[in-house]
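Q: What would this complex look like in 3D?
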Amino acid sequence: MPTVEMTYREALRACIIEEMDANESVFVMGEDIGRYQGTFRVTQGLFDKYGPKRIIDTPIVEPGFTGIAIGAAMTGLRPIVEMMTMSFSILALDQIINHAAKIHYMTGGQAKVPLVVRGPGGAANQLSAQHSHSMEGWYAHTPGLKVVAPATAEDAYGMLRTAIHDDNPVIFTENPGLYSVKGSIELDNGYAVPFGKARVAKEGSDISLIAYSRMVHVCEKAAEELETLGISAEVIDVRSLLPLDTETIFASVAKTHRAVVVYEDWKSGSFGAEIAARIGEECFDELDAPIGRVGGLNVPMPYSRVLELECIPNENDVIAAVQKLA
Amino acid sequence: MASPAKMKPNQESPANLELFYRQMVQIRAFETRCNTAYRTGKAGGYLHVYIGMEATAVGWLNSLRLGWDYVITAYRDHAQPLIMGSDPVKIMAEIMGRKDGYSQGKGGSMHLYDIKRGFFGGWGIVGGHTPLGAGLAFGSKYKGEDRVTLNFLGDGAANAGVFFETLNMAALWDLPCIFIIENNEFAMGTRLEYHAADTELAKRGYPFGIKHERLDGMDVLQVRQDAQRIIDWVRVNQKPYVVEIMNYRFAGHGAADNDRQLYRTKEEEDEAQKRDPIARMENFLRGNNLMTEEKMEAIRDEYDVWADDVMEKADASPHPDPSEVYDNVYTDMMPEAGH
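A: Here is my prediction, written as structure tokens for the whole assembly.
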């Protein structure tokens, strides 16, 4: 099977194509995904390839088209809904949280909702307050949903396949800063990454940096720099928030005895706080220092690039948090 | 308020006439027991009965291909599965939160489902299920099937933003979905003219180029004729339709609504009672010598006994075991356990 160098964006597209070719029930709907080729070009070329029946340009109405996708999923179709950004999925929270997530439960198992809601979450470049949300914590709070946030092109490719095959609603959050990240993808071989398995992105012995999505790359850079300071950091790519692989996280903490959780979402009340709480509950005896947290500043995302960069965690923030625990 | 439509000449077989009468009586007897269950603490939460609106469900659902077509509605959802052939004991057991209910006690009165028979619930957020119903129609159309989806909603839901969004897409994509606005004149306790700028709700279809009609919902024979005509049209043309059905909720909004005089007068209720679909059908059967008074009484008695029996059997069902609380959150995994 060919292994191809491609970007995160192309890897997502390659997976969608393979799945659409394999299963007529898979279709994509969203705003400007067809004729316009997708705001972030994930769906580029798909409209020409599959036509309007399976690549569906919607009106700009997230609650309505998400609800239609949920209904279609209940009839056995496997919709992939693209949110132009996860910030817009806020409009569809009623459909996602108060409908999709509860259907299997409320029906006593009679109905299934094999739905994927995917799109970029988090800050891009000066998109300011209304377009920069990290929504994964809102969704990972909700029983009935699965929530993943791959950091690499390989995981984007392999986890999207798992998401499409899943019989439960899956929130698949990308990040605008990841679309051009490159990876080696083994095409046409059914490569899939199971949910609920964290990845050790870099091994280390002194401290565990626990992150997902783009912050994994920030942690990797911080780890390189920490190496020069004589600190060996292990980087855990959580990649699946719900289900959460606490086993891998706890094993890392048991090894390093120190942990910093790093996430782009607002620092307070986020999923990163949940990870920290779990470590506190289960690994207290293993810890040689308090659990550190590096999160986004608790402010609406400002427009100014200077202020925006102030809000988003970077390598220096991670290094500072590590040094505080040393 | 809608004026009662004129009675059309009967086009139904004697068997159908008896069936419709029986089903309306059956619904009322069942719903009366639901109120009893609520009052005696055997049903909890929110519970909404269909008393006064029976002709709408009976007329429409008897015009479907049961087992093939799809039906979805809001939280006033006991009558539809009864007519669609669901097990009444399982419905009542669900309303009582028992293990033998359709959702093993996870859904309750507002969340009844019998997916095998095409009944997709049973939803609690006003207007929230309307895109789901369009999605059912999307699914059948995508697969090239000729199913029709009946998407019931109330007059209150006709103001919801997501309903307008749904109508737009239903028209844009030619979805075979009939939006049936059951206008019982009250959004909970708020009268139609206090909640809708234009009280002719059928006109919701107009801006989207969807065929639409305001129809009577109290004369089951009229409902049945209209329903068959519209369902047949939608099945053949594979396009949406908006129907506003004028009916009336004799009961309160929910079982907990115990002061209807807050939003309507006793005189108004007495006036509405003159349109009672069951009494109206009895008049028709009597006036045309189609059924004797004795037979009608026997049918009413039969369903009284039946409803008591359903309630007793449902009440015999055990409560779910606490260990079942995690079942069916996901199809393939358990959520994080513990408090």
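A: To summarize the key features: The first strand of chain A starts at residue 3 and ends at 7. The interface with chain B takes residues 27, 53, 56, 58-59, 61, 63-77, 94-95, 98-99, 104-112, 143-144, 146, 166-168, 196, 243-244 of chain A (CB under 8 Å).
Q: Very helpful, thank you.
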